[in-house]
Design brief:
Elements (H helix, E strand, L loop, with lengths): L8 E2 L8 H5 L6 E5 L2 E2 L3 H11 L5 E8 L2 E8 L3
Antiparallel strand pairs: 1-2, 2-3, 2-4, 4-5
C-alpha cells in the first residue's frame, strides 16, 4: 500500500456517525498508538481497549494520515 510505516492498525473504513468518525478518523489512517502505547496489530488494539477501558472513556488515538501524525480524542461507545 506504499505506506510510510510497516506496523500499526490500518483503518479500512469508519462507521458514519460512529465514535471514530466523530473524532475525525478516516479510512486509510493507520493507528500507531493508543494513550501513548504502541499498537502494532489489530489484536494489540482490541486487547488494550477491552482490558483497560469502559464505555464513555476518552482515549488519545495517534494516527498516521499521509505524511502527518495526528492525535485524536475518541470517546468509546458500545
Amino acid at each position: 500500500m506504499d505506506l510510510a510505516i510497516d506496523t500499526g492498525v490500518f483503518i479500512v473504513s469508519v462507521i458514519s456517525g460512529g465514535p471514530a468518525q466523530l473524532a475525525g478518523m478516516r479510512a486509510n489512517d493507520v493507528i500507531t498508538h493508543l494513550d501513548g502505547v504502541a499498537m502494532h496489530t489489530t489484536s494489540d488494539l482490541i486487547r488494550k481497549v477491552l482490558a483497560g477501558y469502559q464505555i464513555g472513556d476518552i482515549v488519545a488515538v495517534t494516527v498516521i494520515r499521509g505524511a502527518n501524525v495526528i492525535t485524536l480524542s475518541v470517546t468509546l461507545s458500545s
